[in-house]
Specification:
twelve-stranded antiparallel β-barrel; single chain; 12 strands; alpha+beta; 24 helices; 23% strand
């Protein structure tokens, strides 16, 4: 068919007289009968120009033109009168339908400006519906969206479907609304299917699932059943997904790779055995590394996890994620060496993957390769300096490597971070966020300490026994000691172990048992070794010389240890608590080489620290002591003590926990069994660390 040709407007020749309507009507009829269609159009337009409110006449004349075969002239006459505002709604609808029919029958191109008016929305929903139908058929979706975009509730089912179909790509939200309106008018059919697909594409899975349910499983094709199942899984409605998959299977449809994928996903959280079986069928049809990884995740047995992941790695040996998964599996299976190799392969395959670098660092750390762990953690941390857990781990790494300056640098980085001690960043063994911060401050202080000065002394009403401060095996009424300890080497502390030189001056109350410990002063100079990183055990050798009686000389070798005093039961400040229980089991063995006698001490203490200020505690405590002394014969002393101390910590900074401590206390001792002459005594004690 040819397009409708609209003749150009004609300027009628000047007539000596104006024809009457009857003459124009007769001329129209004669011209039409003679197939002089242009003359017929001229008479029709002249006649219409003489009529007022001539919608009915326009209908009659254009109908006759169409009936006679003058489609072009009819279209031109209709276009001149468009948009037929003088007619009734029914007349306007009839005329618009006729114009659209002529355009569609002759496939008239509407790019000419003369047709632009047809793109402008008319003033009633019914007429806009006619316009939209035309432009939709002409595949002019932008015009359709303009015409129907007002979303009038008077539009019908076909209008909403046209709007939806014209908006799926360019305006998906508009398409979703249009299909939803169409479904309210006619649910369970194409509108529901279109709504389901559009809502799924938009991520609105509940709406999509409701639309599929409206259609019903029996009315869904095989492809639609699988699409509905996919939507149900996305909406976490696994039971519905399993039901649709059961319907699909009962139809005898082909159970392909996609079907088994959906079965596995539907049963992953509820029926691991079914999910595993589905994944195995899936891998038989098409082996894919991701499916073997999924099988490994479903398996409870560590060795079976390893086997599935090894198969995944065999299919995709260049995938860093697969190698990392294999590394985790080897670790769970108790094969750390194989796990480390897998993480090394993952890091080599993807050097820019910082998650893999972190896991490689932890694998090195578990394997005891602190230097390699540090390099991996450093790479990851430089890529993400805001990762505070990595910074914390680097503190431990450099502490283990005896690189104290680097460890302290990372401690300061952690302490400076505003959110370093949020709940998400705190390691469980360190307790609360306040304790976590304090632990780093204490570590920073200890790693930087080289010199420690201690002063200890006590005075009492009777002969008594000390433990850590006293000269082993001796009993006095009073005793005092000042000691300076210097850690040797660089660094001064090596992952918890130290070697130090110390000098101490100590004195006692003498034979007269004076209350002031100023008699028998001695100078001791020696070496003290703490060999273990995580145990408080000291070995020492000391040369002693009398300061007044220069003939007094002795060599002392000593071993001492402290147990049960770490973590929550320690005597150091507890930042997050108003009070805490502490305890200590102190063991001491000393040998005097010249005098050839030996002394032993076992001392158990328990106490409660009650905070009385931001840096002080009152500490009621109780002791149970055993002291043994062997010279010519063995002498023993067993006593129980009870007392109270006031402790204050001071000197803290932003980065350092308080390095100094002062303790003043009163203690009552009662000997249960002793070789001494006195059983009871009241003692005043003083101790400070600087």
């Amino acid at each position: 068919p040819t397009s409708v040709r609209v003749p150009p407007a004609r300027i009628p020749a000047r007539a000596p007289t104006t024809p009457s309507p009857a003459e124009l009507q007769a001329g129209f009829t004669v011209a039409l009968g003679a197939h002089r269609f242009d003359d017929a159009q001229r008479h029709a337009e002249a006649l219409l120009a003489r009529e007022v409110g001539g919608a009915a006449l326009l209908d009659e004349l254009t109908f006759k033109l169409v009936d006679a075969g003058a489609d072009g002239q009819a279209a031109a006459t209709l276009l001149r009168a468009y948009p037929f505002t003088a007619g009734t709604p029914a007349e306007r609808d009839t005329l618009l339908q006729r114009l659209i029919m002529l355009i569609e029958q002759h496939a008239t191109p509407l790019d000419d400006d003369r047709w632009q008016a047809l793109r402008d929305p008319l003033d009633t929903p019914a007429l806009r519906s006619r316009q939209a139908a035309l432009w939709t058929n002409l595949r002019q979706c932008a015009t359709t969206r303009t015409l129907l975009g007002d979303m009038s509730p008077e539009y019908g089912y076909d209008d909403w479907m046209r709007l939806g179909d014209c908006s799926t790509s360019e305006a998906p939200a508009l398409a979703l609304r249009a299909y939803a309106w169409a479904q309210t008018l006619r649910s369970g059919g194409r509108a529901s299917r279109a709504l389901a697909y559009q809502a799924h594409a938009a991520g609105d899975y509940p709406t999509a699932l409701a639309a599929w349910r409206t259609v019903g499983a029996d009315q869904l094709s095989d492809e639609e059943l699988l699409a509905a199942t996919t939507t149900a899984l996305a909406a976490r409605e696994n039971e519905q997904a399993a039901s649709w998959l059961d319907t699909f299977q009962k139809r005898g449809a082909s159970l392909d790779y996609r079907y088994w994928s959906l079965v596995a996903e539907a049963h992953t959280s509820s029926d691991a055995a079914t999910a595993i079986g589905a994944l195995e069928r899936k891998t038989q049809l098409q082996p894919v590394a991701a499916d073997f990884i999924s099988l490994a995740h479903l398996e409870a047995d560590a060795e079976r996890q390893v086997r599935w992941l090894e198969r995944a790695a065999a299919l995709d040996d260049a995938n860093a994620t697969t190698q990392a998964e294999l590394g985790f599996a080897y670790s769970r299976a108790g094969r750390p060496t194989a796990g480390l190799r897998a993480f090394e392969r993952a890091a080599a395959l993807d050097p820019t993957n910082m998650t893999v670098q972190v896991e490689l660092g932890y694998a090195y750390w578990r394997a005891g390769r602190a230097a390699d762990a540090g390099r991996a953690f450093e790479r990851a941390w430089h890529a993400d300096p805001a990762n505070l857990k990595l910074a914390q781990q680097l503190v431990y790494v450099y502490q283990r490597l005896k690189q104290n300056d680097a460890a302290r640098r990372y401690v300061r980085h952690v302490l400076d971070a505003p959110d370093a001690f949020s709940e998400a960043s705190v390691d469980a063994p360190l307790g609360t966020t306040v304790d976590h911060r304090f632990a780093f401050q204490r570590l920073h202080e200890d790693l930087g300490r080289r010199v420690t000065v201690n002063l200890d002394g006590w005075s009492g009403t009777a002969v008594g026994g000390g433990s850590e401060a006293t000269s082993a095996g001796r009993r006095y009424r009073s005793y005092s000691q000042v000691e300076a300890d210097v850690r040797l080497g660089s660094p001064a502390i090596r992952d918890g172990s130290t070697l130090s030189a110390y000098a101490r001056v100590f004195a006692d109350g003498g034979d007269l048992r004076r209350a002031v410990p100023a008699q028998n002063p001695m100078l001791g100079v020696g070496l003290r070794w703490k060999p273990l990183r995580n145990r408080v055990i000291y070995l020492s050798a000391e040369n002693q010389n009398g300061l007044e009686d220069t003939a007094r000389r002795e060599v002392l070798v000593r071993a001492s240890a402290s147990f049960l005093n770490g973590g929550p039961y320690g005597d150091e400040w507890h930042a997050s608590q108003n009070g805490w229980f502490s305890q200590n089991l102190y063991l001491d063995g000393a040998r005097y080489l010249k005098a050839r006698h030996t002394a032993y001490t076992v001392d158990y203490r328990t106490s409660y620290h009650r905070q009385v200020s931001a840096s002080a505690t009152l500490e009621p405590y109780a002791h149970l002591q055993f002291n043994g002394y062997r010279s010519n014969r063995f002498n023993s002393d067993i006593r129980t003590d009870a007392g109270i101390r006031w402790n204050v910590w001071y000197g803290a900074t932003r980065y350092d926990a308080a390095p100094h401590k002062l303790s003043i206390g009163v203690e009552f001792q009662h000997a249960l069994d002793t070789y001494l002459s006195e059983r009871n005594g009241l003692f005043l004690s003083l101790g400070t660390r600087w």
